[in-house]
Amino acid sequence: MDLHTFVCLAKNLRAVLYLPEMDENFVRLVARYHRYRGVGVPEGMGLPRGRPFVPLSPPPGCGEFYATLGPAERALLLSSAYIAPVLTLPQYLEHFEVYEIFPIMADAPLNIREGLRHLRISEYAMIDAHASAGCDEDALRRFAEEDVRKRFWRVRGDAVRAGSYCHLHLPEDVRAVTGCLSIVLAFSPEG
User: Measured on CA atoms in the order 89, 68, 84, 23, is the torsion positive or negative?
Assistant: First the structure.
């Protein structure tokens, strides 16, 4: 993929989908609410293609490193590179716990309305994190602690995990073409 194609795709991407197992209801929900913006699907995930789903490749220069990663790590790398939060179901949040630097807690699981709103909000948070904290894990942790109160006040609570701010340790050459922060959000099609 050339740089121009990468930039065009990144500008129109709403989220990176992470579904280790197919969930038709969730896929239909995502397709219904993202008709005009792309939803990235990591290579090898085997999910549907066609509008709004866009197959994602690693950014230029990251292919070798990307090939060494597991599915959750790939989603985080693509999320930080394309500046698009990871969208998943609540049961898959545990796949990201090892990369979590700060949780997003709520009083109840996110419903569709709050999930979609905070998906947009997460994009802004990822851009701001890159500009203010870079890839320093301590700076990202401080950013996340303040940011979660500022941006996720509508759902703030302590009953359930609705998502998390995640940091994937990257080699220097990969960090040069990606960010280091990803935000993972989960909501259910029943919500």
Answer: negative
Computed from CA positions of residues 116, 128, 2, 171, in that sequence, does the dihedral angle turn out positive or negative? negative
Q: Which candidate, 186, 29, 159, places its Cα nearest to that of 97?
A: 186
The pTM assigned to this predicted structure is 0.90
DSSP 8-class letter at 21 = S
Q: What pLDDT, on the 0 to 100 scale, is given for residue 28? A: 84
Is the CB of residue 95 less than 8 Å from the CB of residue 54? no
Start-to-end Cα distance in the chain? 37
Q: pLDDT by residue (tens digit) across 100-136?
A: 999 999 988 888 888 888 888 898 898 888 888 777 8
Residues in the chain, total: 191
Report d(CA 35, CA 81) in Å as an integer. 22
Residue 15 and residue 84 in contact, taking contact as beta carbons nearer than 8 Å: yes
> Could you state, in order of their start, the residue ranges of all structural domains in the chain?
3-186
Given a cut of 50, the residues of the chain with pLDDT beneath it are none
For the chain, the average pLDDT equals 85
Phi and psi at 177, nearest 5°, equal: -120, 5
